[in-house]
């Protein structure tokens, strides 16, 4: 908990502020009891204690009562407490006792004071020997047939959170931390070809890069250079089935973590060119395991869907498992089916992904059905006011005097 306090005097020179911070210093102790059956019969009020452990500058210990702490319970329950084992006055703390399930099912029995912190506040221990815990921690007959007892052994985990309060005054310094420029710095290293150790031959162009950076960003390059069958000594790689401009854009992302200016790379101002490049970059990102780049391309293509490119983008989304992009394209194509079918991309769609045609027809049917429902709702809404908008139909309206007026539309 943090409390801000500001004291304003008569002038600016007397203004002051402070901050009270209440927090817990937490620590845990694992306590194991072996030979549980031999501890039974000690009698109520008799205990087994853990070694002391220190949390928040105080010593603590766990007390386990195999026959219970109270005589009146007649050894029906086992009792567990956490005690302050060092000198202290009004030590405020939160506690948690966990009896561990030893079957591996993870069904531990947890008694936590942390969960009730906002209800009752921390527990105060007045002096050395003060305790927090449960007289009736667990019914003994149930405990002895449960998964908490295994091989005559009990195991529990104890957590103590000592409450500390501190006051912070105003800071007499202000350091402005600039935003990260790692991407810009790495991009500079790429552009300046500093320390490059690998050449990529892509078409008629050569690109220099750094194997370590490529391996850090792409699992495909990592396997190629440093995997079991990789060659860390290779200094030349020839890539096929990728255009130089696409590889250049991908390198830009690998080093800067940003999409490049595609129109600048392509040397064109055409939106269609930008979309086509984005399609190819998405395919390259999928090929080299660049998931973030793939998702950036998918998001961009969702924004740029149009009648000229929707068919090829739909085919791309199917081939590279871009589900959101696929849904956007199907809906757009279904809504503009006549125009889309006249595009060159639709022929490509028929040849490359014929299975998509049935999905497209289903989407068309769904769109038509929704349109029919909406139209029906509009007619129903109009009929409420006595208007039937069907061509040539006679419409009725109700006048304020409750007389029906019939008129020909």
Question: Please, could you describe this protein's structure?
Answer:
With 409 residues, the protein is an alpha+beta fold. The protein is built from 15 helices and 16 strands. The chain has 3 domains: 20-166, Apoptosis, Tumor Necrosis Factor Receptor Associated Protein 2, Chain A; 180-303, Potassium Channel Kv1.1, Chain A, CATH 3.30.710; 305-373, Serine Threonine Protein Phosphatase 5, Tetratricopeptide repeat. Strands 1, 2, 7, 8, 9 and 11 form a 6-stranded antiparallel beta sheet that branches. It starts with a strand and ends with a strand.
Short note summarizing the structure:
The chain is an alpha+beta fold and 409 residues long. It has helices spanning 36-39, 117-120, 140-143, 182-191, 211-217, 219-226, 244-256, 262-266, 271-287, 291-303, 310-319, 323-335, 337-341, 344-352, 355-384; strands spanning 2-7, 16-34, 48-49, 53-55, 58-65, 77-84, 91-99, 109-112, 123-125, 131-139, 153-168, 198-202, 205-209, 236-239, 394-398, 404-408.
């Amino acid at each position: 908990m943090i409390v801000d306090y500001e004291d304003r005097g008569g002038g600016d020179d007397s203004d002051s502020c402070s901050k009270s911070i209440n927090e817990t210093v937490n620590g845990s102790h694992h306590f194991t009891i072996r030979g549980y059956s031999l501890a039974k019969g000690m009698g109520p009020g008799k205990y087994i204690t853990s070694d002391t452990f220190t949390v928040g500058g105080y010593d603590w210990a766990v007390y386990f009562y195999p026959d219970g702490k109270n005589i009146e319970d007649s050894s029906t329950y086992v009792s567990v407490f956490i005690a302050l084992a060092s000198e202290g006055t009004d030590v405020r703390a939160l506690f948690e006792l966990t009896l561990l399930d030893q079957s591996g099912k993870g069904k531990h029995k947890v008694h936590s004071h942390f969960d009730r912190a906002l209800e009752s506040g921390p527990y105060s221990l007045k002096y050395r020997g003060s305790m927090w815990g449960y007289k009736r921690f667990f019914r003994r007959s149930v405990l002895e047939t449960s998964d908490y007892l295994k091989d005559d052994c009990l195991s529990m985990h104890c957590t103590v959170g000592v409450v500390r309060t501190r006051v912070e005054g105003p800071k007499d310094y202000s350091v402005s931390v600039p935003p990260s420029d790692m991407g810009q710095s790495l991009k500079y290293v790429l552009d300046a070809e500093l320390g490059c150790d690998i050449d990529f031959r892509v078409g008629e162009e050569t690109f220099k890069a750094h194997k370590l950076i490529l391996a850090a960003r792409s699992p495909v390059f990592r396997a190629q250079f440093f995997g079991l069958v990789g060659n860390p000594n290779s200094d030349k790689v020839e890539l096929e089935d990728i255009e130089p401009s696409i590889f250049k854009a991908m390198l830009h992302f690998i080093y800067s973590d940003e999409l490049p200016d595609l129109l600048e790379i392509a040397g064109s101002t055409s939106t269609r060119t930008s979309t086509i490049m984005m399609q190819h970059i998405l395919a390259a990102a999928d090929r080299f395991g660049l998931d973030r780049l793939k998702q950036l391309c998918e998001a961009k293509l969702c924004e740029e869907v149009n009648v000229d490119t929707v068919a090829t983008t739909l085919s791309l989304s199917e081939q590279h498992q871009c589900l959101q992009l696929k849904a956007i394209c199907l809906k757009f194509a279904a809504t503009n089916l006549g125009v889309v079918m006249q595009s060159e991309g639709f022929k490509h769609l028929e040849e490359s992904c014929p299975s998509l045609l049935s999905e497209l027809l289903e989407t068309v049917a769904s769109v038509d059905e929704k349109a029919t429902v909406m139209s029906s709702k509009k007619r129903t809404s109009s009929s409420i006011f006595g208007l039937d908008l069907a061509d040539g139909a006679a419409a009725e309206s109700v006048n304020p005097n409750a007389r029906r007026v019939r008129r020909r539309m």
